[in-house]
Amino acid sequence: MRLGILGSGSGSNMQAILDGVADGSIPAEIALVMSENPEAYILERAKKAGIPTAVIDCRGFKSKFPEEAQAETAAALKAAGVELVCLAGFMRLVRTPLLKAFPDRIINIHPALLPAFPGLQAWKQALDAGVPETGCTVHYVDGGMDTGPVILQNSVPVLPGDTPESLHARILEAEHRTYPEAIRMVAARLADK
Which domain covers residue 157, as residue numbers? Predict the structure, then answer.
């Protein structure tokens, strides 16, 4: 299975996926890594691994992902032979052009146990709410903000004295285990179709 990865930041989840591909635990290859942030370290990680990269042109919008940019992104992913799109810290909402191009083939990792704490800084939301545990969720992308069907979740305890940074670090460790496992599950489902 050929994966396309979209990310906006450091790419630590992409690295976990890449490690799973390299050790054979994920039956896939990463065909293309894309970011709307030309300075994102995810692009550097991909280049170091010999993976093709591309920058998404969001036409100067700081947070929007215009339909034209989504259509161009979909075309680039299709041209690379991508079969499954993995959002890995991608900070833009995916809408119709990408969803139509990859129906039920776009997944995302979110740092909370959805449906709790969708959106930004979910670890901080969990701390502010005083919950005893939070975690991470891999889900299908459906056009809403973190609303798609859940594929896999893993919980992380909220410890006394946790700061947003310490909790986020533990959630990230869980993400690095959970995302590769979820990709294996999705790849197996797609292979059975």
Answer: 2-192
pLDDT, average across residues 51-66? 89
CATH number, domain containing residue 160: 3.40.50.170
Residue 138, Ramachandran bin (φ over 0: left; ψ between -120 and 50: alpha; else beta): beta
Residue 143 token pair: 């056009």
Question: How many domains is the chain built from?
Answer: 1
Residue 162: predicted pLDDT: 96
Binding residues for (6R)-10-formyltetrahydrofolate: 64, 91-94, 108
Count of Cβ atoms closer than 10 Å to residue 110 Cβ: 23
Q: Which two tokens stand for residue 32?
A: 């293309």
What is the per-residue pLDDT across 24-49, written as a single tens digit (0 to 9) for each? 999 999 999 999 999 999 999 999 99
**pTM here?**
0.95
What pLDDT, in 10s, does the model give residues 154-177? 999 999 999 999 999 999 999 999
**Which residues belong to the annotated binding site?**
11-13, 64, 91-94, 108
List Cα–Cα distances, 134 to 45, 126, 131, 162, 177, in angstroms: 28, 7, 7, 12, 15
Q: In what order do the strands lie in the sheet with 53-55?
A: 53-55, 29-35, 2-6, 84-87, 106-110, 133-140, 150-157
Q: What CA–CA distance (Å, rounded) separates 20 from 26?
A: 5
- Residues classed as catalytic: 110
